[in-house]
Amino acid sequence: MATGSRYSVKFRRVRAGKTDYRARKQMLISRKPRLVIRKSLKHTSMQLIVLGKEGDKTLVSANTGDLGKYGYTGPTGNSAAAYLTGLLLGYRAKKNGLAEAITDIGLYHATKAARVFAALKGAVDAGMDIPHNPEIFPSEDKFTGKEIDAFRNTNISEQFEAVKQKIQGESGE
User: Which H helix or E strand runs over 102?
Assistant: First the structure.
């Protein structure tokens, strides 16, 4: 390890590859809630987070695991489930009086039609005001599950529509 008066050790979360502090600082300067989208192999989780005096505070959250309450039994690691999670979070946020946010995708690469952007589309379709470029959203066949139905013999697109109607009906839309 390098030593000397000019050497400084990077923060632990930078060394671990978990945080980009430059990007985080720019988001915090905006003073808007951050729509944090994180994904794993099986789930997508979303949170609306604001900066507090003692650290970040989560205002609203949704996870693909929550979709089971609305009758969704399909796989949760796909774009259809991510879109429904974004829709659910958007309606929960509007119910709590939150209408705007900025997107925080963390260290994920901004790839066109990625699952994080399907989740963002769900939040935007719920009526949230989030700056975005519509070209980056996945096609309608991808986030409604029709693409999965064509590849496999499943009924995800039917479940998608039913769950979408339940989420919208619960919110009074």
Answer: strand 102-104
- What is the helix (H) or strand (E) element at residue 61, kind and residue range? strand 55-63
pLDDT digits (tens, 9 = 90+) for 23-56: 888 888 888 999 999 999 999 999 999 988 898 8
The DSSP H or E segment spanning 121 is helix 115-125
Q: Cα(145)–Cα(160) distance, rounded to whole angstroms?
A: 7
Structure tokens at 158: 């039917």
pTM exceeds 0.85, yes or no: yes
Q: Would you give the DSSP letter of residue 5?
A: T
- Choosing among 2.60.120.200, 3.30.420.100, 3.40.50.300, 2.40.30.70, the CATH entry for 17-171 is 3.30.420.100
Length of the chain: 173
